[in-house]
Amino acid sequence: MKKLVMIFSLLLFLTGCGQEGQSASEISVVNEQANYTQLAISAATKISENAFDELYQMLDEQMQSQLSRQELESAWRKLLLQMGELQYYSSNFSLSEINGIMVADIPFIFAHDQLMIELSFNNRGEISAIYFLDYAAANSAISLRLPNDQEITFGEEPYLIQGSLTLPEGDGPFAAVILLHDYGPVDRNAQIGPNRPFFDLAQQLSAQQIEVLRFDKRSYLYAEELAEQKDFTIYDDIIDDAVAAFYYLAGRSEVDPQQIYFAAFGVSGQLIPRLEERLPQASGYFMLNTTARTIEDTMLSKYLYTVSLENELTAENEALLVSHLEKTAENIRTLTADSSLTADELLGAPASYWLDLQHYEPLNAIKSVQKPLLVIQGGRDFEIGQDDFEAWQAALSANPLAQYQYFGNLNHLLMEGVGKSNPQEYQVQSSVSSKVIEAMVTFIEDNSR
Fold it and tell me: pLDDT digit string (tens) for 346-355?
């Protein structure tokens, strides 16, 4: 049963796996490789002893420019909240050379689970990258910055939101885009494995003279506090902070307040009607790979597909896992106000979250939105399909300002590929397709005339 629980945990967070390589104990005692082995052991020891000042000194200059010492420690503290206290790290780790970079994959064992910490070393023996593998929330804990990013804070106490404002060259006034997240606790880059779609969008759109605001989701920044909030809803999760982000941008001198758009990714695209109620002055919207179904049905189909790809499951364990997934979705569908089900039994969100959405019908609600709106869908997306795309087209048929773009070779992260996508693809580094950027830029230019 331990094996089953571990697999479910991995599936739930769409995780990756470590690089293959020799066992450290088998590596030839060539001086250069022996040095990298010692460097990896030294870094792992510093992590396990909470020696973050010393660990930070091991980072290369570029990584230090993108990550503060406090952020490094904060990422580790958040990980401990989820995984339990660290027990030990395994000395039987792998060391591989990948494209000229030495990569150490070190297993860390915690009270509740285990994961791989991947350290990349440059040719000077400095750490150039850190990844938390097999746990996406931890992997998101370290958020890269762009050279033209400005650190910002907006919103209200006790939930001030931290983010990055990516500034184009020049004085403006610029059109601006606010990036909104999919379901779950996500950082400002929307990072999954080594991929950062919001980072890519900010980088590429700002190069086209469009300012971009991306932010750490409230449930990412304040997971512990929100776990105690009994009336947590989608407004707390996304909408309130989206509204605050809009007013923050509208007050900036370099931003054209008549040209502020929302790019809503995944589930957040369903919330455009609720945003429109709060922000009738918004200029328009992008719906990026947005489901037309309920969150629970969308998550169920995603996990069932992922389970179907798992070769190590026995038929008995696969049946148990499928039954568990279906039961979780049914828990949400039949939820009542007097339910005693916990967030762990409801896809990680409390009953109040699901009760708020229980009678929300986004396909009907979107009909009230008569604003410029561009629906973008990837044809290789195994999470959101062509049926969802066509459902939005039908629902928006009376909106003459709605447009649609279907890119057959894009996955859920808006990245190009061949053949049917799968979760493992998210662990291969890529970037948001330039076709998406071109479509977004053209849409904004057409609606600014």
Answer: 988 899 999 9
Q: Which of 133, 161, 196 is the last residue of a domain?
A: 133
- Number of residues in the chain: 449
Among 321, 312, 302, 447, residue whose Cα is nearest residue 372: 447
Q: How many domains does the chain have?
A: 2
User: ∠ CA 31-32-37 to the nearest 5 degrees?
Assistant: 95
**Domain membership of residue 93 as a residue range:** 18-133
The CATH number for 22's domain is 3.10.450
- What is the per-residue pLDDT for 289? 97
Element (H or E) spanning 88, and its range?
A: strand 86-89
The Cα–Cα gap between 228 and 297 comes to 26
For the entire predicted model, the pTM comes to: 0.72
* Structure token digits, residue 224: 């512990």
Q: Specify if 85 maps to a domain.
A: yes
CATH code, 168: 3.40.50.1820
117 and 176: one domain?
A: no
Does 129 lie in the same domain as 154? Answer: no
Other beta carbons within 10 angstroms of residue 101's beta carbon come to 13
- For residue range 227-284, what is the model confidence (pLDDT) as tens digits? 889 899 999 999 999 999 999 999 999 999 999 999 999 999 999 999 999 999 999 9
- Give yes or no for a contact between 270 and 291, defined as CB atoms under 8 angstroms apart: yes
pLDDT > 90? residue 404: yes
